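Hi C.,

You asked whether I'd gotten around to modeling the 544-residue construct. I have! Everything is below, sequence then structure, no commentary in between.
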Amino acid sequence: MEAIQFPQQKEMEAAISELRSFMDITAVTLHEANVAGKSGYILTIILEENSNQIACEMYDWADKIFKRHLEITYRIVNILDVQDYLKNGNLYYVKWYLSKVVLFKNGEFNFKIQNGLPKTNELLSKAEKKNIEFIAKAESLKRGAQHYEGTNNHQMALYTIHQAISLLFHIVGELTMGKPHVNPSLLHHLNLVKNFAPILNTVLNGNNAEDKFMMELLDKVNSNFPFKAKTRIKKETVKAVHKKLHNLLKTTKKIYQTQLSYCQERIVGFIEPKKGKANLEEIVVNDEAVITNAITSYLKTEAIYCFNNGQTKPNHFYLLIFTQKLKDNAVHDLADIIKSKTDGRCTATLLIHPFTELKTKQPDQLYFFLNVKKKGKVLFRAKQTDLISLNQTLNRDYKESKDYLQYRNIIVNNMRGWQDDYEWACYSPLKGVMLHYIIEQICLGMIRLFMGYFPNHFALSYLLEICDYINPKASIFFSRLTEQDRNLFQVLSRSYPTLRYCSTDSFSDKDMDLLEERCNDFAQFANNIVKTELERIEKLEPKV
């Protein structure tokens, strides 16, 4: 683990693996605490930018996992908050940035953290200025309390001391936890902060009766402000509370100076990430890693193969995924997740199959799997996965594909005949369903002939994406650029169960004629390329 030698590495790895199974994690880091009486390490769990999970709501779940594996202080934070903390002078995160050891990260982590980030000396300078201003404000409040004490305005003295102590807890919280907390109760605030700054117990201890009385008195005075009547408060009490404030201010300055000195030492040997063209790979998002992480987080994945990435459409991935168990609607859900995780840069067509299908006896499907496995790029493979041997023959017998194509043609020709024969074919919901299944059968025949592949997902948009892999011109027939295009494709995408609920025909004859024309053009296009492929196959096959 680079500079840090953590004794429970195996337990840590097991905990991180389990956390990743249900949390949208972009990185997990470890850095030394060693401040404010806190020794050991702090684990930082960083959530992805687009995660719907709220950091503060994930602690109960994480606690259960750490109880099973190891005891460690940890923080959960979204990467957007980390970026904001760094750029706005948070000294805790400047220290984290200078000293972190990354235990896990996905492909976008470095880019997200480093993109637009000023140099570390600028970050440190901003953090120094911010903390000096906070401490100066606390000192000003302390002097104000002194003034009120001197004029025997004990209520205002205690009220001002309450404000000063709250501010100091705020400063200590940011210095030791990375996030300042606000709590009107000093006792509750102390109990939260002291876990990361045990040294506070030497100044104010909630278990000490005298200290507890002082904090409860301060809370009472604060809640009664503005004062409607004077409350009798002994001068000795004010002096004792003021002394506590003095010691807390002194301790806060010490914590700040310790964190600042640590950062100043670290910054000397710190190598700034380069942003020149020669090091572009360090800041450009690794889309393959982001996509792989999205898939493995969603599915129990055995292997991922990428074939023909970006050759058909820029930043479009065709992925063959083997999983332990299929999930309902995984194809569409994962495609949406990938688009979201890459901020819309990438799209994907996902061919998801159970791992057991690698042992299929169906020769076409086995040919397709072997072909992708041999010629595609491995994005992920589980350590325990025992894939089929590549020594198997990749020669293909086209007989089954041609037979399958012939039956698709029988179905298509009969359905087109029904449309010509029956007057009710002008009803757009029914016509849309008829055209849907005509296009589906054409797509299935093409995919089987050209690729040897038989899908297990049959949404029309999905089948057309696979046809686009076969020939990029396939996508031009059903474009979805205009509102009319999208409405027509919506009609085309309807399957037969929708007929149970359809009623008024809302589409004009002109629109439906246009849709039928597009379907006929696609059918003609498919017929031409299939005919050419059959002629090519015929030349390859031995003549009897």
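If it helps when you're writing up: The chain has a mean pLDDT of 85.

Thanks,
B.
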